[in-house]
Structure formats: C-alpha cells, structure tokens
Amino acid sequence: MESSGELVPFPLLMTPIESNYRACTIPYRFPSDNPKKPTPTELSWINLFMNSIPSFRKRAESDDTVPDAPMRAEKFDQRYAAILEDIKKDPESHGGPPDCILLCRLREQVLREVGFRDIFKKVKDEENAKAISLFKEVVCLNDAIEDEAKRAENLVRGIFAGNIFDLGSAKLAELFSEDGMSFLASCQNLVPRPWVIDDLDIFITKWSKKTWKK
C-alpha cells in the first residue's frame, strides 16, 4: 500500500537539502559537460540498464498473477528500451539527466503501466523464507566470534552478502537462474580487503566505543 501523505525532508539531513544532499554519490556529469550529450558515465549506466531488460522481461513473463503476462512483458521490453534510447539521444528527456535512481524509477513506472505490480514478489517470498531459516545459525556463528573487531567485520560481511543478492543486475540474475545463490556462498565469495571503498577500520573503532547507545 502506497502512502498518500505529504513528502517531507528527513529531519537529520543537513539543510538546505537542495544544495547539501545528493541521493547519488557517483558524479554522472559536471557543469562543463554538454547538457544535450550523454557523458561516458551516463552511457555506461544506460547500457547497464539496457542489458538488464532481457532478465526483467523473463521474470515478468513468468508472473502468473498477471493475465497475458508474456504479451505485457514484451510491451515492457519495447517501451523501456525506447525510453533508454531516447535518453541516449537527449539526456534531459524523461526527467533527466539520468542517474541510477531515475533509470530505476522509469523502469518501475513502465512495469506498472503495462500491468506488473511486483515481478520479484515470488522470489522475494522464497528468499525471505530461506533467510528466516538461516537466521538463528548465522547469529550463533557470529556470537561465537570472541574478538569484537572480527565479530563486527563478520557482521559487515553479512550485510554485503545480503546486498549482493540483486536480481536487478543482469549478471547476478543470470547466475541465480543457472546455479542458484545462497547467503553463505555469497559471504565466502566476497573479495578480500582492502575494498574499493574501505572504511571498515574506522567503523569498527566507532562501533567499539558504542556511541550508538543512548
């Protein structure tokens, strides 16, 4: 159920929000860039979303809660691909310039326009059930780690493993359909440190001081 209430700024964000807050931290473009020409970063993201269309279409086709799902999935494919091509020609079209949030929003909008409420509901329900069954074991394994810093690192790795599970990614959707995925396997397959952005030591230091306690 969607809220019909008024949207308000999150009170803990720095004000004025218009100049201090950016939902996307990736610099898609700079003031010197031509507003009528997509930047290399924008193009790479547009192509990423374009490459994800087949996996979204396949997922939509199998949605047995929607009548004529294959036909509607084809419409989604055509409409969303056309939007992405438009944005390639004119980055300011469809509410642009584009960023990850806009591209996701447009994709969801097209899915709903053609009749799909949530093409991932079935897999969400299945994976939630698996996660609940694993929860006790995962917590016990973490509690058994005596070193506080290593225990915190293990928690962070678990967060990363959960976040990796993203069927919006064409590569991960392909992996899931072929071999399946598991939380423990995702934990084991995380790349070793140092990570590209690695503030774990700073986080663990703050965590150990328990500044989050009231």
From TrEMBL:
Keywords: Hydrolase, Manganese, Metal-binding, Nickel
UniProt cofactor(s): Ni(2+); Mn(2+)
Domain Damage-control phosphatase ARMT1-like metal-binding: residue ranges: 51-213
GO molecular function: hydrolase activity; metal ion binding
Alphabetical list of InterPro entries matching this protein: ARMT-1-like_metal-bd_sf, ARMT1-like_metal-bd, At2g17340_3_helix_bundle, Type_II_PanK
Hydrolase recorded as keyword: yes
Taxonomic superkingdom: Eukaryota
Name of protein: Damage-control phosphatase ARMT1-like metal-binding domain-containing protein
Origin organism lineage: Eukaryota, Viridiplantae, Streptophyta, Embryophyta, Tracheophyta
